[in-house]
Queue: 4 jobs
Job 1
Amino acid sequence: MFTKVLPENVQELQQKVAYAEQVKLITNKIHAAQELNHILVDLQKDILSLFDAERLTLYACDTEKKEIFARIPHNDTIEEIRTPIGEQSLAGFTAKYLRPINLGDAYSKTELAGIHPSLVHDSSWDRKTSFKTKQVLTYPIVAENKYLMGVIQLLNKKSGARFTKKDEDSVAEIAKGLGIAFFNLRKLAKKTPTKFDHLVANNLITQAELETAIAEARKGSADLESLLIEKYKVPKAELGKSLSQFYKCPHVEYHERMFLDPELLKALNVDYLKKNYWTPIKRDKTGVEILIDDPNDLDKVQDIKRSFPGQTIRFAVCLRRDIVQLLRIGVGHSRRTDQRIDAGAAR
């Protein structure tokens, strides 16, 4: 005899399969992330979609400062929130003791005291945003069962008075994947040199500030180098030095006395050069000198070699804003020169 499967059981099974597929998809995205900001900022909504919660916050661990931090998109910028590892906040407590917290009322002193006599709910973010925190579920993000990587925090259960055992199991599953991803990204960051290492090593900007700036540049309209100069007050010369050390080529900074050889631009589309951030600046017996924002960009390098076949190419790194400015001024100068030549020929 066959047992008849009830329609509601079929529907429940379909929901479980669909949820498992969604978890797998998002977990794959987490493991494919090339940098921490991609998980903290870009994947936040995807991860939240797995849970019956109004909001989600992902914290990463700053072991040097003994803090956890989150990066929250706000308008066109990214706002960083930091909290000490300790009893001053729910996420901080979870980070310190590697213990989950499940509260029905974040403001209940009785519930808080039942977990730890010194535990408090940090309500500063509620006051700042007018968001009312009710239910809270926090879970530690750990690698290899011992290394604190961060904390995942769910706020306000959509259906019900508090988060359930099923919610806890779901958070634990995602936290496990996040722990592996955070750990791998930390190892990768230690091994892989970046074009801003000089700035961090010389205390011109902190690693945390740099990561926040990278996230801001991804969300906003300004390029990263401009943000570092204007918002984070990194000296332009030091930024150029950092780029030069990374790309192992000279850095060229725009100045008013610079000009482009108009002969080099005749066969090139200036709008294309502006969009791709490179330009030839001069040619001599030894070859053509190219200003470019990224000398390691193979697609751009191939385009440049096709534009100057059979010629030796020398690269110098240059900020995007400087390349665009140079092209704007250089093309204007070239047109004025042509107009004077034409006028002279007419006379």
Note: The chain has a mean pLDDT of 89.
Job 2
Amino acid sequence: MDSENDPLPPAGSDGFGREAEASDELAGGPDQWEAFEERLARVASGVPTPDPADDSLGAPATVLLTGESGAGKSRAARRFHDLSGRRDGPFVSVHLSGLASTLLEGELFGHEAGAFTGAVGAREGRFVRASGGTLVLEAIETLDLALQVKLLRVLQERVVEPLGSEDFVEVDVQVIATTGRSLARAVEEGQFREDLYYRLAVVPLQVPPLRTRTHGPGFEGLCQGVMAHVAARAGVAPRALSPEALAALAAHPWPGNFRELENAIERVLVLGSPGETVRAEEVAFLGEGLAGRAEEIALEALASGVGLEELEAAVLEAALEQEKGNVSAAARCVGLSRRAFSYRRKKLDGA
């Protein structure tokens, strides 16, 4: 598994997602995610609350986390578990794209000895191992249609049937599914079952990319939380960030999301002076990488015969699509004001 499964920084030091409407075209912002974290904390503390929505956090309601690669979906899943009423139960994760479908069924639901070639002994599946806690199904969009039917049955009936067995095993699991693409679109394209989609999206959450988190007041706490986490993992003392270094981090677009931030912080810790405040020069390598990539893209465009206006139009449209039609967010992605972004699009459309 990748770094998304590493232990989390302390609760409240960062924000890895946001609450959303009950659809796959998710919306929302940092304030909504903070409100959702407050609900999680209330349930975890056991304090009585009049909010009936809090009850779902202790019950086996399914959660669907959508977000870009590296955005922190596994972190959000872990936080959901740690702050829920199931935090004392097991936390089990499986990446569905990492196993062939012939092996995945046995991995999820278990199997008896001799159920298939190579099954020399009985084995509990991930659902049984996660009973009483949380099971994370990563990359749910890669599950083939045949297994989607069986997963739907498990979610509906709360029982699994191990391969080679005629007996059913009851399971008490909160399922969190993660995906890097729109499941609603996958349903439209016939690649994902609609009934399973709605069964998974009881609590839908959008995990926003890091670039949308850099302008809020919580960005410094987020960076310091990642600093503490990476330092603990590396066995070194964390370092404070100077205002200039923090500004340089906030100005970076973070195409690699939280993975890139973790790598940058780790580099600063390994190469810098222990105990000293991180200076802006120590994170200048982030800009150097972008400059090289921009030159590479420019050379590719020239070699392909792509003109300047065509390239600019493609960048603007890509930003708009990436931000799901939100013009203000798309403008921020390319470093323009909303007015300048709209003016350039209009000008290029008339060219």
Note: The CA atoms of residues 137 and 177 lie 5 Å apart.
Job 3
Amino acid sequence: MDLTERQKKVLYCIVKEYISSKTPVSSKRVLETATIERSGATIRNDMNRLMKLGYIYQPHTSAGRVPTDKGLRFYVNELLKIREEIRQRGTQVETVARFPIGDMEKVLTGAAKLLSSSTKGFVVIEKPSPLNLRIKRIVITPVSKTFSIANVVTTLGLSSSIPLSHAEIDDLTEIERVLNKMMSGITLSEFKAKLKTVLSKVSELTDFISENTTKGFIDIVERLSFESYEDYIHVGLANLVANERVREDKIHHLIAYVSSDTFFKELFELKDGIYIGKEHGLKFLEDFSIIIDRFKLEERPLGRVATIFDKYGDYDSVIESFEYMLNRLSEYFTVVSRNVE
């Protein structure tokens, strides 16, 4: 059922006050802070209706009210509307950050630490994948006749070392030369899309490499193309553990889960957006909300950032910090890509 405008104001006030004070909100407090010209009895009736509809609950008799996940969702939706209105009016101040051209790992780690500190949350950054970056060169270093290490260097200076098992090869020089000729200037994802064509025409490659090395070439190409390249930076686990609503008997389960590959997989299966409490469906994290989105190189997505924070946290501040960091990372990678030859 739809809420009246007054009930919406009452609900917004309850959520905002609870986020600020972390104590149940009374009808008296609503009257003191909200611009509502009504009696205490009217406000209490509105609060009872909000309870029946599942937006708030009363921890115990005579206590004030606490917002549920449904109430928090209403609040966040209203907050996003307000932020969008401000953005459309053009009153938002955009601050330009100057990033040095440096170690990408340090930049991402620094961004994660700053975001974790400002949101009091657990931050996970998905590193840019070589699949989405243009290849500068590939260097293959032989370890034995059947095992090598391929180092893929991209336009952002990001390199990825990939172990390669292959058929016996005496000399990798020809294969390295052909790979660089075929892959320089394109992305690994583009090369992956062309893999079937490459393999179907492998017989033509004998103009460049000997028949004895053809099998080794196929092994290496397949390994490069199907590498997953998943890697993450994460900071702020202590912020989750320190949350007063996380029971002691649950802490070790939470730590084990967010340290597992399953967690990263399930986290980044979520679509971009804000998830409150149980909405995200991640185990042991129902006391937390998640905001997740992607940073870009110009308009091309490079990676994603997720912040997990107290579901009764300051959403306005968290969203502000999160959007700022996304913009700065996008700006950084765009600047770096234009400066790296």
Note: DSSP finds 13 helices and ten strands in the chain.
Job 4
Amino acid sequence: MTFINARFLTQRLTGTQRWALELTGELVRLSKDVELVAPAGNTTTREIEEAKIHRCGSLKGHLWEQMELPKYLKKRGSPLLVNLCNTAPLRYSPQIVTVLDLSFIRNPQWFSRGFYVYYRFLVPRIVKRAERVVTISEFSKRELIELLGVPAEKIRVIYCGVSAFKADEKSPNRYGRYILAVSSIEPRKNLKNLILAYRRLSPEGVKLVVVGSYNERVFKKTELEGLIKDNENIIFTGYLSDGELASLYRHALVFVYPSFYEGFGLPPVEAMAQGCPVVTSKVASLPEVCGDAALYVNPHDVEDIKRAIERVITDEPLREELKSKGLKRAALFSWKTSARRLLDVIKEVC
């Protein structure tokens, strides 16, 4: 029997939890020998169909993961534990550990002091003790080798898939013509330069819609308030349902993702899958993931971001070309394929 560390079921749904949720859902459909163990209490993400979930303990968060999770598993004979969200128990084996990226090492200034200190202590130790280390791009594999000295033969790359969002038919296009950005509100997503580019462009009748939420325990403030003050055309929606998000992707003129650093970069592929043209950064994992299906920019250059947005929203043939290439690119990424690869890694260890 293999157990999934399902602490992610108690967390807000962001890119990390999306990866864990979708991958686990497909994995339990592929194998009856995979079960979940999670903290007791309410589930904040959606439940996983067909999954057997064991609830244990009274603690939450990191304390549950470090104390009650390993204790529970040791009582069951120390089965293989698969961790999908960057953390894992320090004192447990055997286990597979997933590290999505090493942004907290490359750019610690983006994170809160507490987050940085904990992850800087934890991650090097859990990858050293893990049977295998899973990551989500060849870029992140190189980062693990360079920054943490993880042997290449210990690392397995498993790409993200694309979620089958269904547009909410009850959510009509309420914004008219708009540029879309989807990300957590944090410094590395580079929303500041996106907003500056939008303000320079000042496209008549075109809004900027930003979807995402902010976690002050993890990220440092982004100083966006002054940039959006008194500008009714810049809209922050907060967290939205999958159906609402799919509708926004489908109606947008362009999706812009000028991130400074990514381990994969799921939102651009989600946008492509909904037929939305993509502008993104030519850095980190993004060219690996988006291929020739995106228009690339230097995320540090506001004028470059502005020019790319202007090209897409004024050039209909270019928009159609990016849409066509994007749909083909997104079709390469499947959660079922990713789950099969994870199952192969589990079989290597077992």
Note: The mean pLDDT is 93.
